[in-house]
Amino acid sequence: MRAVAKRIPVVVQRNSRGRRAAVRGLWTSAEVVVTLGVVLLLLVAHQLWWTNRQARAGAAHTVQALQRDWSDPAPAPSGTPDSPAVSAGDTGGAGDTGNTGDGKDGPGGAAPATDAPRRSQAYAVIRIPRIGLTAPVAQGISRSGVLDKGYVGHYPGTAQPGGAGNFALAAHRNTHGEPFRYINRLRRGDRVTVETRDTVYTYTVDKTLPQTGAGDGGVVAAVPRSNVKPYVGYRAAGSYVTLTTCTPEFTSRYRLVVWGKLTDVRGR
């Protein structure tokens, strides 16, 4: 009989070390993606929730401080810790400037201020019943000193409340208290009141410009009229209020403008 040769089986071992390295690489990549996602979520929550909460609380405290100060027959000297007149930051020198047109929330073109409150000083309270807004008005439109605090900023060089000309204001539409979030809902006939130490001024909404360029300084001129859309605005002198903010929401590409006329003046 012929002998049958036995075959010796050959065992091929896979590269287990390479496989473990690949698994570790995939796991590390997954951890990095999850971590980045959590960080991004925290940043979004900070911008959309925390900045609003913090700014609204600070703005409400400032409104209360102003009202206490106004009711005090001997108000605290400006600049003391209990006074709402404490200032910080700039007036349009950086960030949301009104003079160069590169501001965050309002178009530019305002001239230098004269006989105005100190920079970043909160000195009035604006109320807009239609959108449930009560907020302090501060001098200037800088981000750090005014807008990021949830305040409504007054364009330097424009009229003061009740004065002849244009009392022009700017505020955030999103984040940092977003006081002007819903001014797009204002309609002709809605009231905008501005309260100072001695007087309450009532403006009545008259016109809206849904969108214009960030550099459209005509909307904050003494006789407000758009330079981009010259058929929108006014031709006669008067006492006006202008509200400006960013549009569309969560962008700063264009500006939304609401105008009103002074219709009532009363003592406090």
List the helices and strands and how they pair.
Blueprint: H1 16-71, E1 122-128, E2 133-139, E3 152-154, E4 165-170, E5 191-195, E6 199-213, E7 239-247, E8 254-267
Parallel strand pairs: 2-3, 4-7
Antiparallel strand pairs: 1-2, 1-5, 3-4, 5-6, 6-8, 7-8
CATH class: Mainly Beta
Structural class: alpha+beta
Largest sheet: 8 strands, mixed, barrel
**What's the Cα radius of gyration?**
29 Å
- Say what the CATH topology is: Sortase, Chain: A
CATH hierarchy: architecture: Beta Barrel
Tell me what portion of residues adopts beta-strand conformation: 15-25%
Low-confidence stretches: 78-104, 108-114
Specify the number of helices: 1
Give, in spatial order, the strands making up the sheet with the most strands.
1-2-3-4-7-8-6-5
Would you kindly provide a written description of the structure presented here, covering whatever features stand out?
It is elongated, with a radius of gyration of 29 Å. Strand 1 and strand 2 form a beta hairpin. The termini are far apart. It has 268 residues and is of the alpha+beta class. 21% of the residues lie in helices and 25% in strands. It contains one helix and eight strands, in the order αββββββββ. It has an eight-stranded mixed beta barrel with strand order 1-2-3-4-7-8-6-5. It has a single domain, classed as Sortase (Sortase, Chain: A). The longest helix has 56 residues.
